[in-house]
Structures are given as structure tokens and as C-alpha cells.
């Protein structure tokens, strides 16, 4: 795990940029009643759908590119 933040009150978090490579991010909000809301739809891998997750790549030079998946 590269970065984790909990009990965040504002909808913003910053961290140092990771090294070149493939990364996944999951953002989840939980209210006081325990209801969970995922920030993203899902990302598909060979193991199936992973809800609330996005995949991105950090390329040489620090450019960030989102990985997209189209079903069908």
C-alpha cells in the first residue's frame, strides 16, 4: 500500500507522487450510520469487478494516465 487516509473531513487529500508504474485507487465514504458509498463505479480485472476502484499509470516524467476499460 502506497498511501492510506482515514477520518478525512474534507474531500481532499494530497500525498507525494509515486514512482513510475501501475497503481490503483479506491475512495470510499462512510457516514455515522455505517452506510458506505464508493466514489468510482468499478474496475475489471481477470478476478472480476472491483467496485470503487480506478487504475492509473505514472509514466516517465511524472505524467499520470487513467486506465479505462470498456465492457462489451
Describe the structure.
The protein has strands at 21-26, 28-30, 36-38, 42-45, 48-51, 53-58, 64-67. The model has no long low-confidence stretch (mean pLDDT 85). The chain has 72 residues and is mainly beta. The strands form three sheets. A three-stranded antiparallel β-sheet has the order 1-6-7, with no helix packed on it. A two-stranded antiparallel ribbon has the order 2-3. Strands 4-5 form a two-stranded antiparallel sheet. The radius of gyration is 14 Å and the shape is flat. The chain contains no helices and seven strands. Helix content is 0%, strand content 42%.
Question: Any key phrases for this structure?
Answer:
72 residues; mainly beta; 3-stranded antiparallel β-sheet; two-stranded antiparallel sheet; 7 strands; 0% helix; flat
The percent of residues in helical segments reads: under 10%
Spans of at least 5 consecutive residues whose pLDDT stays below 50 are none
Mean pLDDT across residues: 85
Strand content: 35-45%
**Largest β sheet strand count, sense and barrel closure:** 3 strands, antiparallel
Query: Strands of the largest sheet, in order across it?
Result: 1-6-7
Amino acid at each position: 500500500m502506497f498511501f492510506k487516509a482515514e477520518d478525512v473531513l474534507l474531500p481532499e487529500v494530497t500525498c507525494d507522487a509515486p514512482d513510475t508504474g501501475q497503481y490503483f485507487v479506491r475512495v470510499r465514504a462512510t457516514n455515522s450510520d455505517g452506510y458506505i458509498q464508493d466514489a468510482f463505479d468499478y474496475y475489471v480485472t481477470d478476478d472480476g469487478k472491483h467496485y470503487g476502484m480506478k487504475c492509473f499509470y505514472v509514466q516517465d516524467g511524472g505524467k499520470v494516465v487513467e486506465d479505462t476499460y470498456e465492457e462489451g
